[in-house]
Structures are given as structure tokens and as C-alpha cells.
Automatic annotation (TrEMBL):
<dbReference type="InterPro" id="IPR002205">
    <property type="entry name" value="Topo_IIA_dom_A"/>
</dbReference>
<keyword id="KW-0238">DNA-binding</keyword>
<dbReference type="Pfam" id="PF03989">
    <property type="entry name" value="DNA_gyraseA_C"/>
</dbReference>
<dbReference type="InterPro" id="IPR050220">
    <property type="entry name" value="Type_II_DNA_Topoisomerases"/>
</dbReference>
<dbReference type="Pfam" id="PF00521">
    <property type="entry name" value="DNA_topoisoIV"/>
</dbReference>
<protein>
    <recommendedName>
        <fullName>DNA topoisomerase (ATP-hydrolyzing)</fullName>
        <ecNumber>5.6.2.2</ecNumber>
    </recommendedName>
</protein>
<dbReference type="InterPro" id="IPR013757">
    <property type="entry name" value="Topo_IIA_A_a_sf"/>
</dbReference>
<keyword id="KW-0413">Isomerase</keyword>
<keyword id="KW-0175">Coiled coil</keyword>
<feature type="domain" description="Topo IIA-type catalytic">
    <location>
        <begin position="49"/>
        <end position="520"/>
    </location>
</feature>
<dbReference type="InterPro" id="IPR006691">
    <property type="entry name" value="GyrA/parC_rep"/>
</dbReference>
<dbReference type="InterPro" id="IPR013760">
    <property type="entry name" value="Topo_IIA-like_dom_sf"/>
</dbReference>
<feature type="coiled-coil region">
    <location>
        <begin position="457"/>
        <end position="498"/>
    </location>
</feature>
<dbReference type="InterPro" id="IPR035516">
    <property type="entry name" value="Gyrase/topoIV_suA_C"/>
</dbReference>
<keyword id="KW-0799">Topoisomerase</keyword>
<dbReference type="InterPro" id="IPR013758">
    <property type="entry name" value="Topo_IIA_A/C_ab"/>
</dbReference>
<feature type="active site" description="O-(5'-phospho-DNA)-tyrosine intermediate">
    <location>
        <position position="137"/>
    </location>
</feature>
């Protein structure tokens, strides 16, 4: 596709000819690509990404340089921010005033910048995301660190300058930074097709890392972690896992897990009231809005996703942050804190992307790369500084030498000047008589009379000696790189002495994390590490101690108030619970992460122990000895696959994909198959009463990876849907239930084994055309499970009807079951096995 472009914007004349007689035909696709590329590079270079040398974006550089030109040094009074914004807009940055002011405000905020580059006077916002006052009310000046480390040495002979947008002024392309500001305060920005997110660091640690790199340029990137252990956020907090730091520093990209600082206290809510446990939040992760966090917690408490909180209030003041989370008397403080970590931004990730401009091009850099680029830039800048100073000192030395030459032959010089008809003649005669340069002759002609005194001669001789010493020193710095680097090290040490402060963010080591877990007040000290784990129909999980022989409580009690027990099993500390959710994701929850419950507590919602509120499909206790076990997964649309259970051991907190799904599909059923214990087959049931039995082998249900979508298991009718899946050995028994409440038992031997993709066999004869199958469960003889299982039938009214297996008639495939439910519609089936207790 082509488009005709007329030069100078003039269109064609009415008679169809061009006014200029020149029309350029260009390809529209090529023109769009070229124009968009120019726009993208303009955003990347001119707005969004910082320069690796001074760590600044153009808007920040222009603000600081405009303040420098206005003379707003740290010892001068504050000036209105509106004046600074006006100068920046008029001279260097022809964009919106609000954009410039927002950038200025961020450089003032102590909770945004680790070392603020601008000192402010007035309201510049708060950690609660309160907006800053208008620019006509606030005042600013340069902070000491920016004046010393960025602007003290700025000049056209030190850094490159370029014309501003209208050519009326010049502005620096980079500031002569004496510290790596890019790492010091960090940077964030979104460009076209790329983004940067660099965390702030501690000044003293950065200087130590630079000194180590100067001494040993071959230092490995990982060795720098000895001096720079991790980011140092202005809001403090904790960094939980150093692995994310290592990845970010070595590769330029990584996820750093941050956590707020909390402590436990006993408080008295009011006069005459009992003291209660409380969680006191004193520090939040970087860039977390305190007010929004409090609203989030209140919302989760109202939704019953966080339990155990009685009150929530903000007691922060000028001295610091203090958010009080008051707990109920029976609540476990450590368990509530873990819920806050999992469900709120009190624990969040900082996605580090170390992207910056290198020679005008965006590059993803490692920590060593950024430090090395800064050192290279500082070395070049020092060279330019010393060369400029050497030229000034040499000129001054020539002037002093000329004065001393004149004083050495003062009578003759006076005589020449007295007889000379004009200045030009006198200048020539001085050059001839004294052998000086034209510049030195001009200096002699401009020399004041007070220089003729004896005291001034001594001062000139002393000054000449000092200038010669300085020239020799500067020449040595320029000729010997080792001396230049020693000067740089001395400069860095002085900056550290002046501006460094203690680290604010604590980095928790592995041993400290283990100690934190060991401090969980679960009441398990000195007790057996075996517990009972209960799961209820409403999604609660409860960990209880094993009852003694004299205990009067029955751990297998089904009724839990308005809730109902679905499963009960014995577990040990160190094991993990695998949780599968409807979007096909898998999460693991350690047993010790489930609060220990006593008394009548029904436990905690299992959903609150997960990082994402997704519908839970199934839970399994991971057995480390079941190395050959596999998960059989089935989606609602009938895709089935088998995946090794070992793939889900040691998952991170973010979980993992268990089954890749289409957009309109979700995980429906899951079961564990251990080939060492049984030779199971898979039985699938449809709402039409059909059953399909598949062998668990590599041909029909092959072992796949976690990201695989699986294979189609069976063919469904137009109005059919899958209602159940179970794994059974050949001697197993099936129990089927219809919507009308008809139930029957069916021997598995009645169902022939078929290949994947078949329609199966009809196994239920419905009493009416409107009836449909709603559930399928399997029963297999298990010597390890003495006791009588119970079959639960769920109804639309949320009632549960329980039956013993022998109460359900045994029929063949042609049977229609027995009407065990009247006047209610059934919705599903479940089997409960009472847990046996060890002797």
C-alpha cells in the first residue's frame, strides 16, 4: 500500500496537478515503522530510561541543573518550587508543568528516595499516598548530596553540553557524578517495549564495592555480594530470600521478596478490659501504601479470608509508623501474621530490572556492569577536570612568572614603558627585552603598582612554587593511571565519611528464617510430631494433636456446627499439602504452616494459606517415599493427563502450573496413582450415565510435563458433561447417584476397558428423561483403613445425607438405582473414611 506525500504540506490544485510539481510516493507500512521507531527511541532516550553514568533521566537532570543555575545551594534559602518549575519549562523541558513538579516532588520524598537529591520545605506528600501541596506553596533547594556528588564540578570543559530545545541555552548531556546515583536511589520507568526497575542501595556499601572493584578489576560479580549484600530501601523492611538478589545482580533481572517489620505485643484495649495479643507493624515494604494496606486488611477480615483479628488502627505519628493489628484472645499471632504475609502486600516482590542507557542505547546490566560503567565515566571525568585545571594553573604560573621577570629588572621595564609611545610598542619591547610571551607581556602591562612592593615579591615567589608543585601533581595524575585511581579512592572514602548512614533494610539469612519458623508458638514443644489434619466442606483446615486413649473427644466427629468433616488423616511435621485449584495451578502448604488448633476451633480457611484466592479442587498429602507416584488430572472439557508427583515437591510460594487449560476450561478432578501399591484403572462418568474405563499406561495416559494440556479422554454429547473421575483396582466397587436421588453400587468388572477417545458404555438407566448422573465415587478394599466408609450425598439445599455402602443396592449396568432421596435434588457424591488412631 502506498501513499502520496506532497512537499511542504501543500495539497494538489483543483485541476489535479501538484502546486510544486513534486509528489513523493512512499510505502505506508515502511513509513509507519520508521515513524514509530523514531517515537520509541525518543521515549527511550529522552524520557523513560536513566543514563548509566549519572543515573538520571533528562527531566531530573534538567531540574537539578536549573536549581544549580538559580544558586539554590544547601546553604542558601529555600525558593518556591513554582520558580524552579518555570525555569525548567522555559529553558530546558518544554512539557507539562505537572510532570516536572511530580518529578521534583519525588526527589524530595524521603520514603521514595534513599538519598533525596532535593531538600524541601512544605507538604510533599506522605507514605499514605497523600498528594503534595501545589507548587506555589512548597519550597526547595539542592540537598547536600546532590550538590556535592552531582553539580559541584559541572562545567562545559568537564562534561558535554548541547543546545536546548530552541537553541537559546545550553544544557549538560550528563552531570559529573561522583557517586553511582543509578544504584544509590534506584530508578523506575516504562519505555516502549522495555522497562527499568532498579532498587536503591546503601551509600557506604556502594563505596566499599567500588573500592573493591578498583583494587581488583577482575573481581567476579558474585564476589561483590560481600560488600553489597542487597538493596537498602528508604522505608526499611526486610528482604526474605537472598536468591532473588543474586539473580538480579548477576543477570540484571530478578524478583526480590520484601517483607514488612512486625512485632508481637500485649496491649490493653480499654479500661477494665483484658490484655490482648497484637501485631505491631513498624515498617512496610518499599512503595506499599499504608492506608491502602489497612483498607485491604479490613476487607479481607470482612470476607472471613483472614481470621483472628479483633481491631485494626493506625497509630502512626511524626516519630514513625505504628499500625496496631489487635487480635482475639484465642488467636495465634504467628498464624495471623503469616496470613497477612500471604494475602496482603505486607510481603511483596520487587521485580528488579537493571536496564539503563549505555552510550545512548538501552542495555540490561549486571551489578558489576553498572559499577564498572560508572568507574569508567568517573575516570574520564577526572581526566577532563585535571586537564582543565592544569590549563588554568599553567596560565596562572605564566602570569606569576611574568610579574617576577618584571620585578627582576624593574628599572628597565619602567624606562621602556615611560618611553614607549603606545601600548602595542611597549608590549613588543617587553617581549624583546624580557623574552616573554605576548600573554606575559599583557600581564606585565596590567600589573598594579602594589605588586612592586617587596612583600608582594615574596608572595609571588611563594605562589610560583605552589603553582609549580600543583602542575607537577596534576601532570602526574594525568600520566599515571594508578595515581588517578588512588585519587578516586580517596574521593570515594571522603564521600562515604560525609554522607553514609546505617543500613535500613534487614536481609534475613537462612538461619534467621529457620529461627523465625522455630519461634512459631504452636504449642508443639516436647510433643509428638504426628498430628491429625481435618478438611471440612466449607474449606476449613484444622491441625490437631493426636488424642490420647483417655481423651473424650472423637477426632472423627462429622458434625462441626454448621460445617461438615470431609476427610481426616494423620500427618507429620516436615510434610507438605499439595493444593490444586480450578485454574490448573498447584501450591504446596507445609504442615507446620497450618496453625495448631485446640478446643472447638474449626481451623482456618485453606484459601487464606494460598497466595491467590482460587477455587480449590483437591488436596493431597505429599509422601516423600512415593517416588513413582503420579497425579491424574482431568479438566471439565475432558482433557486428561498424568504428571509425576515429584514435579510438585519443593514448589516456591508462587506455585506452579499443573495443567495447561484453554480459556473456557478449568481443572475438575484429580487423583493420585502409586503403581507400587495397586494396578488402578481410570473411570470417567458423564451426566448421560455413560462410563469409560481407561488403563493407566503410557499408551492411553502417558506421563507428561506440568505445562502439557493433556489428551482428549472421551467424546461428550451436545448436552453432556463430565461429572466424576475415580481410580480403582479391578476388584473395586463404583457408586453412582442421579439428580433425582437414585443410588446404586456397580462392580467395576461390569465395565470393559477401552481406548481413549471412545464414548464408553451406558451404566445407569434413568427413571425419567430429565434425570442425569451427578456423581461417581469408588470404593476399594484397603487393609490399612479399618472401619466403615460413609457415602455422602449432597443436595441443592446444602444438606448432606450419609449412607453405609451396604444400604445402597448392588446392581448391574442396566439398573436404575434405588430412590434413597426424596423431594430434593442431588448435586454430588463424596466418600468419608474415618481415621484410625495408632496404638
Amino acid at each position: 500500500m502506498t501513499q502520496q506525500l506532497t512537499l511542504d504540506g501543500l495539497g494538489s490544485s483543483s485541476n489535479g496537478g501538484s502546486r510544486l510539481g513534486r509528489v513523493i510516493a512512499t510505502d505506508l507500512q515502511g513509513e509507519m515503522q520508521r515513524s514509530y521507531l523514531e517515537y520509541a527511541m525518543s521515549v527511550i532516550v529522552g524520557r523513560a530510561l536513566p543514563d548509566v553514568r549519572d543515573g538520571l533521566k533528562p527531566v531530573h537532570r534538567r531540574i537539578l541543573y536549573a536549581m544549580h543555575e538559580l544558586g539554590l545551594t544547601p546553604e542558601r534559602p529555600y525558593r518556591k518550587c513554582a520558580r524552579v518549575v518555570g525555569d525548567v519549562l522555559g529553558k530546558y523541558h518544554p512539557h507539562g508543568d505537572q510532570a516536572v513538579y511530580d518529578a521534583l516532588v519525588r526527589m524530595v520524598q524521603e520514603f521514595s528516595s534513599r538519598y533525596p537529591l532535593v531538600a524541601g520545605h512544605g507538604n510533599f506528600g506522605s507514605v499514605d499516598d497523600d498528594p503534595a501541596a501545589a507548587m506555589r506553596y512548597t519550597e526547595c533547594r539542592l540537598a547536600q548530596v546532590s550538590h556535592t556528588a552531582l553539580l559541584d564540578q559541572v562545567g562545559e570543559d568537564i562534561v558535554e553540553f548541547m543546545p536546548n530545545f530552541d537553541g537559546s541555552q545550553v544544557e549538560p548531556t550528563v552531570l559529573p557524578a561522583r557517586l553511582p546515583i543509578l544504584l544509590l536511589n534506584g530508578s523506575s520507568g516504562i519505555a516502549v517495549g522495555m522497562a527499568t526497575n532498579i532498587p536503591p542501595h546503601n551509600l557506604g556499601e556502594l563505596v566499599d564495592g567500588l573500592l573493591a572493584l578498583i583494587d581488583n578489576p577482575e573481581l567476579e560479580a558474585e564476589q561483590l555480594l560481600q560488600w553489597i549484600p542487597g538493596p537498602d530501601f528508604p522505608t526499611g523492611g526486610q528482604i526474605v530470600d537472598s536468591q532473588g538478589i543474586r539473580e538480579a545482580y548477576l543477570t540484571g533481572r530478578g524478583s526480590i521478596l520484601m517483607r514488612g517489620v512486625a512485632q508481637f505485643e500485649e496491649i490493653q484495649p480499654g479500661k477494665g478490659r483484658h490484655r490482648r495479643p497484637a501485631i505491631i507493624i513498624t515498617e512496610f515494604p518499599y512503595q506499599v501504601n499504608k492506608a491502602a494496606w489497612i483498607e485491604k486488611v479490613a476487607e479481607l477480615v470482612n470476607q472471613d479470608r483472614i481470621t483472628g483479628i479483633a481491631d485494626l488502627r493506625d497509630e502512626s505519628d511524626r516519630t514513625g509508623i505504628r499500625v496496631v493489628v489487635e487480635l482475639k484472645r484465642e488467636a495465634n499471632p504467628q498464624a495471623v501474621l503469616q496470613q497477612l504475609y500471604k494475602l496482603t502486600p505486607l510481603q511483596s516482590n520487587f521485580g528488579a530490572i537493571l536496564l539503563a542507557l549505555v552510550n545512548g542505547e538501552p542495555q540490561q546490566l549486571s551489578l558489576k556492569g553498572i559499577l564498572q560503567h560508572f568507574l569508567d565515566f568517573r575516570e574520564v571525568t577526572l581526566g577532563r577536570i585535571f586537564r582543565a585545571e592544569l590549563q588554568r594553573v599553567q596560565r596562572k604560573a605564566e602570569e606569576v612568572e611574568a610579574m617576577l621577570l618584571a620585578l627582576a629588572d624593574l628599572d628597565r621595564v619602567i624606562e621602556l614603558l615611560r618611553q614607549a609611545p603606545d601600548g602595542s610598542t611597549a608590549k613588543g619591547q617587553l617581549q624583546t627585552h624580557l623574552g616573554c610571551t605576548p600573554e606575559q607581556a599583557d600581564t606585565i602591562l596590567a600589573m598594579p603598582l602594589r605588586r612592586l612592593t617587596g612583600l608582594e615579591r615574596e608572595r609571588l615567589q611563594q605562589e610560583q612554587a605552589e603553582l609549580r608543585s600543583r602542575i607537577e601533581e596534576l601532570q602526574g595524575l594525568l600520566d599515571d593511571r594508578r595515581k588517578l585511581l588512588n585519587y578516586l579512592k580517596k574521593e570515594l572514602r571522603q564521600l562515604k565519611k560525609t554522607h553514609a548512614d546505617p543500613r535500613r533494610t534487614q536481609i534475613l539469612s537462612a538461619s534467621e528464617l529457620e529461627a523465625e519458623v522455630a519461634q512459631i508458638p504452636t504449642g508443639e514443644e516436647g510433643e509428638d510430631s504426628t498430628f491429625l489434619l481435618q478438611f471440612t466442606r466449607k474449606g476449613y483446615v484444622r491441625r490437631i494433636p493426636l488424642p490420647s486413649r483417655r481423651s473424650r473427644t472423637n477426632p472423627a466427629q462429622r458434625e462441626l456446627g454448621e460445617d461438615r468433616l470431609l476427610s481426616l488423616e494423620s500427618v507429620t511435621l516436615g510434610q507438605e499439602i499439595l493444593v490444586l485449584t480450578a485454574p490448573g495451578r498447584a501450591f504446596t502448604v507445609p504442615i507446620e504452616g497450618i496453625p495448631l488448633s485446640t478446643g472447638q476451633s474449626r481451623g482456618v480457611p485453606l484459601l487464606t494459606l494460598l497466595p491467590a484466592p482460587e477455587p480449590i479442587i483437591a488436596t493431597f498429602t505429599l509422601d516423600p517415599n512415593s517416588v513413582d507416584a503420579a497425579l491424574v488430572l482431568l479438566s471439565r472439557q475432558g482433557r486428561i493427563k498424568r504428571v509425576a508427583l515429584a514435579d510438585f515437591v519443593g514448589l516456591t510460594q508462587r506455585g506452579s502450573t499443573a495443567l495447561k487449560l484453554k480459556e473456557d476450561d478449568e481443572l475438575g478432578w484429580a487423583a493420585i496413582h502409586d503403581p507400587r501399591q495397586s494396578s488402578d484403572t481410570v473411570i470417567l462418568a458423564t451426566s448421560g450415565g455413560r462410563l469409560l474405563r481407561l488403563p493407566l499406561d503410557e499408551e492411553q495416559i502417558p506421563l507428561m510435563g506440568r505445562m502439557a494440556m493433556g489428551n482428549p479422554a472421551l467424546r461428550l454429547g451436545r448436552k453432556e458433561q463430565i461429572v466424576g473421575m475415580t481410580l480403582l483396582p479391578p476388584e473395586g466397587i463404583l457408586i453412582l447417584a442421579s439428580q433425582s436421588g437414585h443410588l446404586k453400587r456397580l462392580a467395576l468388572s461390569e465395565i470393559p476397558t477401552m481406548d481413549r477417545g471412545r464414548v464408553g458404555v451406558q451404566a445407569f438407566k434413568f427413571a425419567s428423561k430429565t434425570d442425569a448422573l451427578v456423581g461417581l465415587v469408588g470404593l476399594a478394599p484397603d487393609p490399612n483403613r479399618p472401619g466403615q466408609p460413609q457415602v455422602d450425598l449432597f443436595t441443592e439445599s446444602e444438606r448432606i445425607h450419609s449412607f453405609l455402602p451396604e444400604e445402597i443396592p448392588l446392581q448391574n449396568r442396566a439398573g436404575g438405582g434405588s430412590p434413597l432421596l426424596k423431594s430434593e435434588r442431588a448435586t454430588g457424591l463424596h466418600v468419608f473414611w474415618p481415621q484410625w488412631l495408632p496404638e
